[in-house]
Prior knowledge:
Layout: H1 8-26, H2 33-40, H3 44-53, H4 58-72, H5 74-92, H6 98-108, H7 114-123, H8 131-143, H9 145-156, H10 169-191, H11 198-207, H12 210-217, H13 220-250, H14 256-272, H15 274-287, H16 299-324, H17 327-355, H18 360-371, H19 373-384
Helix pairs in contact: 1-7, 1-8, 1-9, 1-10, 3-19, 4-5, 4-7, 4-18, 5-6, 5-7, 5-10, 7-8, 7-18, 8-14, 8-15, 8-17, 9-14, 13-14, 13-17, 13-18, 13-19, 14-17, 15-16, 15-17, 16-17, 17-18
Amino acid sequence: MGLVKMTKWRTLLLATIGFNFSFLIWFSFAPFTGPMAEEFGLSLAEIGILASAAIWLAPFGRILTGWLSDKFGAPVVFAIVLGYVGVFSMASAFAESYTVFFVERLIVATAGITFVIGIQHVSEWFEEENLGMAEGVYAGIGNAGAAGGALILPRVFGADWSGPLFQSNWRAAFFYTGVVSILLAVAYYLLGEAAATDERRQATADNATLKQWVHTATRYGTVALALAYVMSFGLELSMNGWLATYYREAFNTDNLVLASTFAATFSIAAGLLRPIGGYVSDVLARKEVDILPVFEGRYREQWTFVALSFIVVSMLVMTLAGLSGTVLVAVAAGFMVGMACAFAEGAIFAQVPAMFPNSSGAVAGVVGGVGTIGGITYPLVYSSV
Length: 385
């Protein structure tokens, strides 16, 4: 029993706060690529590798923590991750060697695995007909943590930063975000309740076996949703880590705060609009509305297909906007891509717990883990062109 009586809405709030900050600390390096590159002597290609490295451990980490959340409950797993992430974020602030810094930030980047922990936690409290909306709110506001970092960190820790411990703004940012992460870990452990009822918690824990994991991980639905998440969330991850550099380099925008603000418009769209994707999926399923002449009766799948098609169209628009040479047009196109990603991600994770109610953590881990692969490969492509 936690310190306060938890309800489904309090659980949603707790999970959302935890994931929002996880996303902030995950991409806290993005606004500071310029000064970090200068201090460590990094090339543009090496910055691309650093952005990609932020996601290297996420695939396996999400798969593992999804299963662990089913087995031991989300509050315990969430608290452990936030705790060690905070420790290594603080340690990275003191790194003098780039190799040490790289390894420490690699560990900090596992903050992104908290996504599947929260997905599992929320699904243990909400009924099926409202799952899409609830998961959309959780993931949407949570994902907006990247935008929060892009907007807040370079302003709080500006180029003229001078503090009691650090003269470098990025070192101060990494240290103090680490402190907050540890405090959040304690709060999540003390306040969180694993499920709405003991019976539900026990049913999920009993289902968390290796045999059941293999069964759910190899279902066609799991594989299809995982590939769709590569296309949507993988793209979002890469954009979060790369857009500030893109706006700065492609459009000669030397102002760090301005470039980060431009990048934040994408993250805001990708995060805050995600609940719409889940809500539309819920409405179509509840009212049994076919929006396509194919997949008749598969209401959630139809909406997911439409949202994925929107990503393809929006990426073509962003390509043309970049060729125009006008930064504001490119920013508007980036916002459109973020909107498309939001709708698709909300649609996908409205399906996951609805399809696998007693294995939501395991399936969320597979879908979320495989989805992050796009975030690894895309930045490497960006840095080479």
